[in-house]
Design a protein that fits this description.
198 residues, alpha+beta, Hypothetical Protein Pfu-838710-001, eight-stranded antiparallel beta barrel, 6 helices, 8 strands
Length: 198
């Protein structure tokens, strides 16, 4: 499965449009722990390993650089994560410790999820240490790489129909946190070309 997503800030009008036209799906608290080594070997390749609510997930950027519209391959089983990261066989957590791949960020996010037609909209408020960040995300899931460009177009047209314009794209909560609180890691991502300046 390939996830095509666009992050943006929501003004009150956009939020009202989503709540008025969207089907409310749920509200939940998400606990994320992100992992890398001290050289930032994963994230500088646009590879994001996290444990979400005690289950490991791997998001692999399908382009080297994070863009206004991010495209990721999602890897959701431990066996596939082990294979992709070339860690060998065994319990994932133990192998990560052996390779000195350790937590570098823990966050709690309150997420409201809505659906409008085939689009999923997440409205997040993240708490990372003393840093609070709010943003929204429109996403579409597609099956093949050939469908990605079409999905990007559809997301842009859909966001415009809600009155959300391209100049309101926001960095993700983790990137915003690194920019404010983990400058060395943020700088490494800039130098690797994974992100543009926030």
């Amino acid at each position: 499965m390939i996830e095509v997503e666009r992050k943006f800030c929501l003004d009150p009008k956009g939020l009202e449009q989503i709540k008025k036209n969207g089907e409310f799906i749920d509200k939940k608290t998400i606990s994320d722990v992100y992992y890398d080594d001290v050289q930032f070997s994963l994230t500088t390749k646009n590879i994001w390993l996290r444990k979400r609510n005690n289950r490991f997930e791997l998001k692999v950027g399908m382009t080297q650089k994070r863009e206004r519209l991010d495209v990721y391959q999602e890897i959701l089983t431990e066996e596939e994560i082990l294979t992709h990261l070339n860690l060998g066989k065994g319990p994932l957590e133990s192998l990560l410790k052996n390779k000195k791949i350790i937590p570098f960020c823990e966050m709690k996010t309150t997420r409201e999820k809505y659906k409008i037609r085939k689009f999923i909209i997440d409205i997040d408020e993240a708490h990372i240490e003393d840093f609070i960040y709010r943003l929204a995300e429109i996403e579409l899931l597609v099956d093949t790489k050939e469908q990605v460009e079409q999905a990007k177009e559809e997301i842009l047209l859909f966001s415009q129909s809600l009155g959300i314009h391209a100049n309101k794209v926001e960095p993700g909560k983790l990137i915003a946190f690194l920019a404010h609180k983990r400058k060395e890691h943020y700088k490494a991502l800039l130098e690797a070309g994974v992100i543009s300046s926030v």
